[in-house]
Amino acid sequence: MAQWGHGDRVAQDAFAEGLARARRNVRALAATMAGGAPPVARPVPHPALGLRSRPKPPGEPRFCTSPRQARDHAERLAKTIGITRIGMVGELGDIGGVQIAQAARPDGRWSSTYGSGKGLTEDGPYVGSVMEELEKWTQERWVPRADDLVEGSYRELGDDAVDPAGLALPYDSGYTPELPLTWMRCPDLLTGRTVLVPLDLLRLERGRGDNCFSPRGARKVIATNGLGSGFSLEEALLHGLCEYLERHAQRLAEVVLMNPAVRGRRRSGSWTPTPLRAGRARRRSGCAGPGTWSGSSTSRRRSRSPRSW
């Protein structure tokens, strides 16, 4: 963000908030440009989350509690959620003194699962690996309250609902705007109002008519992206938001560095994607084009372009 002229933290926070608000308001603009009536906003205040400042102890850069207290909590939680082994694996490679911990939980809902943590001391990665497993363990057992659920289609609920088409649905999802869904009331952190989020994207178990079910994959496709844990509500929320920022930045880098149809070049210190000629891109990628057959007669493989980048 510094390359875009947002060097200090205040400017970065203002830019991020403005971008989030713009993305939320784009639906009304798109409807107007298409000649239709913009959706009518019906703000519904959400009960206050009670967020407050959680300063970290002096000299502690990571948790809102001391490393010793965090370690004590992690050891107790590890027993509660079924972690059977925590290994310090940082010494397996030369990574400049960074400590790495790996927590093993063999009784995951679908299979054995592992959580990793990193830090400069032993306590940091130990706690991080346990807390990562705690996130997944909690989602596996989470059951929403009946009072928080709403039934209806996106077409019926309108602006109160988050558009599922803009969320992480599988490319072969059966979702349509007219399809009846179960929604959960959630707070919008920017506006403080209640919005409706599809329940299918919040729970790990597959539900009836699940919009995250992929017929081609024969399974529900859902990620833990955005899950966050912490020793306070504020800390857990911050960790979840930071994970989204990390994954978003990673995806942007993949678009520029790994997509054979674009190349990057430096312009005034910024990275600008530039389209390649189709023929050159095809030669580099070994593809005859999106959705066409490629390869020799003895090895015919379907090559598809991603649905979106």
Automatic annotation (TrEMBL):
Residue span, YcaO domain: 117-309
InterPro entries on file: YcaO-like_dom (IPR003776)
Composition skew (Basic residues), residue ranges: 299-309
Domain of life: Bacteria
Region (Disordered): 36-71, 264-309
Signal peptide extent: none
Segments of skewed composition (Low complexity): 286-298
A Pfam family the protein falls into: YcaO
Record-given protein name: YcaO domain-containing protein
Native source species: Streptomyces nymphaeiformis
